Automatic annotation (TrEMBL):
Record flagged with keyword Methyltransferase: no
Record-annotated Helicase C-terminal domain positions: 501-655
Gene behind this protein: priA
Protein name: Replication restart protein PriA
Stretches assigned to coiled coil: none
Record-level GO BP terms: DNA recombination; DNA replication initiation; DNA replication, synthesis of primer; double-strand break repair
Amino acid sequence: LFEPQDGGAVLERESDQPRIARVLVEETALELDYIIPEELAHRVHLGSRVHVPLQGRRAIAVVVQLLNDSPHAGRLRPIADTIGTKAMFPENLLKLAKWLSAYYLCPLRQVLRTMLPEAVRSRPESFLSDSHISLVKMPDTDELEKLRKAAPIQVRILETIQANGGESTLSMLRKELPRATQVIHVLVKKGLVTRSEVRVERDPFQEEEFMPSAPLTLTEEQSAVYARVLQALERPADSPPMLVFGVTGSGKTEIYLQAIGRVLEKNKTALVLVPEISLTPQTIERFKSRFSERKQRIAVLHSHLSEGERHDEWFKIHEERADIVIGARSAIFAPLENVGLIIVDEEHEPSYKQDENPRYHARDLAVVRAKMEGCPVILGSATPSLESFENAKSGKYELLRMNKRTDGKSLPLIRIVDMRLEKRRTKDGFSILSEKLRLAVQARLERGEQSILFLNRRGFNTALSCMKCGVTCVCPDCSVAMTFHKSDTKLICHVCGMRKLPPRKCESCGDPSLSFAGFGTERAEETIRKVFPQARLARVDTDTMQRKNQLRDTLRLFRSQKLDILIGTQMIAKGLDFPNVTLVGVLNADLALNLPDYRAAERTFQLLTQVAGRAGRGERQGEVFIQTYTPHSPAIQFSRHTDFDGFAEQELEQRQQWHYPPYLHTVLIGSRGKEAAHAEFSLQTLASRLQKEAPPDLIMGEPCPSPLAKAHGQFRFQLLLRAEKIRPLVMHLQKVLAGMTFPEGVIVTWDVDAMSLM
Ligand code: ADP
Ligand code: ZN
């Protein structure tokens, strides 16, 4: 599916001493040739950023090809200068950029722009600096006494430096004495101290202490997996990507750590991707502790760093001062060289897909990059994506399983609460907390144990379902829940575009009590406060966790048992380990299930499995309650028995039958604009042009309104394309798009391998 297609061809070196550089001008997307002047020859590489003269000014460009000759050879101008001495895009990264550009149909210029952090792009090498102060000699006793009378502050500074072992920094001295700068100036003149400028790293973990940790003795299951990983490290060329499918707590991370240890022994580097949400201080601590003797050589990249920190972490990698990089999605673009291993933890996480241009999937890029780097890649998960699982089944990936937790504990008991049987207790006919779950929480409060209540609020328009039989209105042709659109009061299928009036009574059982499923964490919190006025509770979602460190602080409170109940969204579903939590409640499992998306069941299964993994991590057995109006649905039944294989088997069968990924690729085309008619018409025109000379395997729906039909004052439409082979489809799309102009104010986007239809 993801063969890197000769991405290197254009970039190939044509001789050892190229004279001409083909550059991509960053602002204009022009590709132009320039002469490499003699004096810059050692600094102009593939992937270098350079200044070039362009229309009477200087422009910034990236060298994308080195040549011996150019069609315009006589008329070329020289490159003016390079930015830094080393290429900002290592050769393999430039290859990856080309590949990404072709696969996702995104201009190379935009890809290169995304690859560099903003601060690196606009202010490279803007390091903070400080002055290092060294004591040359202390004045002898007499002089010192004289000085103490004449200039007591000078003496104080000298004594401070002396007490500090004869070394200090200006910033430290200034903390003690704001006037230190002037005083140091005088002391330097007197020859008593020396001063030299040093670069200061903005280290996000400066204040933290890390206890060294030693590798653990692996369990039998771990040893078997690790042995395979070691083999792959020895012979990467013969090793397909490895899918480590291990239940939560089976010790995947321990395997990653030991594998990285081996990579470092071979003097190579390792790149680790984790979802943003699990890039918690605990995760980073585990790495920094294991590799404590070289913790300075671990770079961390994620979106909560300040611009300055990100700049410094990037340069740490660029200047080869890091050999482990841990980061979220965009860390796949870390300018790491000599890569010996790439790991993608929680490979099923949808957040690996970027939802703006370039719409890349970091897990898929990891597989491609590993191939380019000639190193093994490990994808890890407790609930693999069906894409990866299918790749493993077909032999493209190697499946490595771990079924037991290292602590030998059994998985928590999972109970399904059938909400159809619950009395309607709140005004709008929705029961937020079932009697069973209420009693379970009550029991925890009495025993001093903790509970997590989970509510996945994603989705804006909600599905229409029957309160009596639980059936949701589903499109007859596509097997996805239809979405109610308030604007035209119709149910619409987002795959094929079919519309219909919402039924007045349930189409399955005839009961008139149809209702839109939907309440959020905020309302849940209010209700639970009323039910348990004595409980100490906190809510964790993107609305309440705006402040920096707020999430960390709340989780600390919870961990130290100063809170009884945590209510939250996905933010609390992953990677958290609280030994005193013995109860997890899922307030509405149907929310994810009813998304207008063929991946709804997969998401639900993953979410429920993950949430359940939060219960009973300590000494006591955990209990999980799943509230649902559709207790019979496969995603819920299979997750109840933590039966991934059963779920995957039946879900994959469905996907095959309905022509969905992983059996077909998708391209979701969107159009939006202030004028609904213009936006819709643009898609219709595009659709009819796509029909001509289309690849034989193309399946195309009708343009229809997006689930989010209007946003930011713009009307949105979409069109789903599916095909077995993605490359011909993308090339066809590219050709059609090149020959079209859209009305002013209409924006057309495309998402290759779209993760959701929304
Ligand atoms: P996963 O990443 O699969 O969820 P972890 O690697 O985080 O699993 O391991 C879960 C827990 O088990 C951690 O506390 C870890 O320290 C511990 N652990 C892992 N491997 C071993 C081992 N071989 N022996 C003892 N404890 C282990
Ligand atoms: Zn349909």
